[in-house]
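Aim 2 progress update. The chain analyzed this quarter is reproduced below.
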Amino acid sequence: MYKAIIIDDEAKARRLLQTLIEENCPEIDIVAMAEDVPNGVKAIHQYQPDIVFSDIDMPTYNGFQLLDFVDKINFELIYCTAHNDYALKAFEVSAVGYLVKPIQISLLKAAVEKAVRLIQTKTPIAQRIDTLKENIKDNVLKKIALPVADGLQFVDVADIIYLEADGAYTNVVLSTNSKLLISKKLKDFEHILSNNPIFFRTHRSYVINLEYIKQYIKSDGGSVRMQNNAEIPVARERKDSFQQVIENIKL
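Predicted structure tokens:
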């Protein structure tokens, strides 16, 4: 059994989440509930939970400030939020659990399974939380936590040269001359990076970072040569929109 605490300023929301967990996540034992951050911190110090479910928008202190008062972060954190699409991207790329209200049972189970997996692999949460805070602070995704064989690798978005589809996986090519094979589809990365204008999908198999373009080759259907000399195709149906984009690049 894994001990868990629920922190939410709405009593109805606390009771509903408790019921959903008890009915669908038998491996979780709710040991305490709190109506605000100060009482939540007391409960964390007293019960030493494995998982904390926390609302974000609460009076006096919000869910992001919770960790500022905890002596030691040795639990997984699953945020319960009604935040907008951008914030959800920030949670996803930071590898911090989240549930959107109203909570769906399938997503609750998935979030709990992910938290348990991270507990079992002893994947540190501190850097993931720092990455989340950094991404949300300026409303720009600056860093991504990528799942690799032995845990998570944190990558600066600005260091990505291009992403290449490889079936159900994606090759993430970095400015350090390294390549990471990640178990996410390219369309997932395209969605995550959709608010960042420096990324452009030139082809069904490629998303490139415009800041690393070395040369645009118009012949043979069109392609771009990147700073690492990789040549990336530009699909015919994307050629016009790509040319409009590069015309705006200041030389």
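The domain at 2-136 is CATH 3.40.50.2300 (Rossmann fold). The chain is about 30% helix and 30% strand. These observations will guide the mutagenesis experiments scheduled for the next reporting period.
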